[in-house]
Design a protein that fits this description.
It is a single chain. The chain contains 5 helices and no strands. Helix 1 (8-14) crosses helix 5 and helix 3 crosses helix 4. By secondary structure, the protein is an all-alpha fold.
């Protein structure tokens, strides 16, 4: 990941658009969207990077790539840390 520290409070702020699909608590209301609460931090980060890089091209790939396009690595790491701490 290359990030030495993460900030879950910053992740909460940065994740404001994530909640529209993944829910404010990381549990998606729509069953076609994944629940991301409590997921492994590294997995979340790598998944977001894969969307950003166009490596995930499933149905939601283009939408996710657009959503993540303006975020930097630190932003992704903070968001991943935030959702990984949820129960």
């Amino acid at each position: 990941m290359g990030i030495t520290t993460t900030d879950t409070n910053a992740g909460k702020i940065k994740a404001y658009t994530c909640q529209f699909c993944h829910g404010s608590n990381g549990i998606a209301a729509n069953p076609t969207y994944p629940n991301i609460n409590g997921q492994n931090e590294q997995y979340l980060y790598q998944s977001m990077k894969a969307y950003q890089n166009g490596e995930r091209t499933n149905t939601m790939g283009k939408m996710m790539k657009q959503q993540l396009s303006s975020l930097k690595n630190q932003d992704l790491a903070d968001i991943a840390a935030y959702y990984s701490t949820m129960d």
